[in-house]
Design brief:
The protein is an alpha/beta fold and 235 residues long. It is built from eight helices and twelve strands. The chain has one domain (7-139, 168-228): Spore Coat Polysaccharide Biosynthesis Protein SpsA, Chain A (Alpha-Beta Complex). The strands form three sheets. Strands 1, 4, 5, 6, 7, 10, 11 and 12 form an eight-stranded mixed beta sheet that branches. It has a two-stranded antiparallel sheet with strand order 2-3. Bound molecules: cytidine-5'-monophosphate.
Length: 235
């Protein structure tokens, strides 16, 4: 008798583990510390992102991945039950460390620490789609700008049709076995986990993203996040 669990059954009732890679040294925000550790209303972007995941009510465990020299300090600042592991040189190395730490999770979310204001309802929608049987789910928004590809000299090499383009956000959600397979079968370094999963031939579905899930990357983004969380102008 075949007693193997059907992957779709595991997804519908399985354990959800969220990975938050925050091990980059990027200081594009100009605040003198890596982006994930910039503060917004007294809490780091990483803490905001972790709180959003916990508030969603659909995540069983959160694992954050940070620079090796920050593991102890970050662990002390996060709620009980949130695990902290050391990341690697590239973002993909950090996600890989998180996948290993997640053990036997059935569903994995990968969430940018810099998407600090992501509404918990978006996180819940990603998980609901996975539980309904999707194996890879990515929030996405139409793009407002026309996007061009360029070569190293800045010369335009193409203009993709804008209506077919989407800006993707996080959390990106995956059947855990699929994400493990995607990471096991390639050493490609990427900024996008869904891109690795696409290489396996799996179907990645987009769902409607949320403007508030924007990535806080530039000083302008940070100013917007500060305005949006200003207690004097918001109820
Ligand atoms: O630089 P970028 O915004 O694409 O980084 C996305 C996320 O990946 C950030 O939260 C960053 O901290 C994380 N990262 C990581 N390990 C690295 C490089 C980036 O966890 N080696």
């Amino acid at each position: 008798m075949n007693t193997a669990t059907d992957p779709a059954d595991a997804r519908s009732g399985g354990r959800v583990v969220a990975l938050v890679p925050a091990a980059g040294q990027g200081t594009r925000l100009g605040e003198g510390v890596p982006k994930a550790f910039v503060t917004l209303r007294g809490r780091t972007l990483l803490q905001w992102s972790v709180d959003g995941l916990l508030d969603s009510g659909v995540v069983d465990r959160v694992i954050v991945i940070v620079p090796p020299d920050r593991v102890a300090a970050v662990g002390a600042d996060l709620p009980d039950g949130v695990d902290v592991v050391a990341g690697g040189t590239e973002r993909t190395d950090s996600v890989r460390a998180g996948i290993t730490a997640a053990g036997d999770a059935d569903l994995l979310l990968v969430h940018d620490a810099a998407r600090a204001l992501t509404p918990p309802r978006l996180i819940a929608r990603v998980v609901a789609e996975l539980r309904a049987g999707r194996e890879a789910v990515v929030p996405a928004l139409p793009v407002a700008d026309t996007i061009k590809s360029v070569d190293l000299l800045g010369v335009v090499t193409g203009t993709p049709e804008r209506s077919e383009l989407r800006a993707v956000q996080t959390p990106q959600g995956f059947d855990a076995a699929l994400l493990r397979r995607a990471y096991d079968t390639t050493d490609v370094v990427t900024t996008d986990d869904a891109g690795l999963v696409e290489r396996t031939g799996a179907r990645v579905r987009t769902i409607a993203g949320e403007p508030l899930a924007f990535k806080i990357t530039t000083p302008l983004d940070l100013a917007l996040a500060r305005a949006l969380t200003d207690p004097d102008t918001n109820e």
